[in-house]
Design goal:
The protein has one domain. The model has no long low-confidence stretch (mean pLDDT 88). Helix content is 33%, strand content 24%. The chain has 205 residues and is α+β, with helices and mostly antiparallel strands.
């Protein structure tokens, strides 16, 4: 039986070889994720931020509200720099998608004060995590992975609420044979258990 690690490697190979994602094994924790986002942000917006400006930007854009984060992804936003001048910036180039940078990371660990979670595969656009893929072996039901994601979201102080993971748009779960996906949502609308399906979950053809 194919192992979970092999399924993960196969997915990454497909993303890099066929879809031209860049594999980033050097991004493995919160710090490396944030530093990569800083590089992508500065390149996309043709700006150089001081350390204090970047830290303030993180505080400004990280939100526990999924809808606020989703809206910020798609709009032109404003940030006031240290000298008082406004910086009009984008997180994703909606009009010209080829100017965005697409990367894939695996086994990312986001440690917060209360949570020590690790994520199988995450897709990044301009350094922002937007799609999470949880993989299981054939003998494990994808619903186990769904429940795992919900448990992660319900974990006090989880990374989805206080790190760049707040920009997550889509969750994908697969056991190589069956693949399902569902959108991110705020906690009051994000409930699922193995017996009854509350989330709108869709299966890939």
């Amino acid at each position: 039986m194919i192992k979970e690690k092999q399924i993960e490697e196969n997915l990454i190979h497909k993303l890099t070889e066929e879809l031209k994602y860049v594999y980033r094994p050097d991004i493995f924790d919160r710090n490396t994720l944030e530093q990569n986002f800083r590089q992508k942000f500065e390149r996309l917006n043709r700006v150089h931020l001081s350390d204090s400006e970047f830290n303030r930007l993180l505080e400004d854009i990280i939100s526990a509200d999924v809808f606020v984060s989703s809206k910020r992804l798609r709009e032109i936003n404003t940030f006031i720099r240290e000298d008082g001048t406004p910086l009009q910036y984008m997180l994703v180039n909606i009009k010209d998608w080829c100017k965005n940078e697409y990367e894939v990371v695996n086994q990312l660990r986001i440690n917060t004060k209360n949570s020590f979670q690790r994520y199988d595969v995450i897709l990044l656009i301009n350094g922002l995590p937007v799609v999470q893929v949880e993989l299981k072996t054939l003998d494990v039901s994808p619903r186990r992975a769904m429940q795992q994601i919900v448990d992660y979201k319900n974990d006090t102080g989880n990374g989805y609420a206080n790190s760049l993971l707040c920009f997550m748009q889509l969750f994908v779960v697969s056991n190589y044979s069956n693949t399902y996906y569902f959108a991110n949502n705020n906690l009051q609308h994000f409930n699922f258990n193995a017996d009854e399906q509350f989330l709108p979950v869709y299966q890939w053809a």
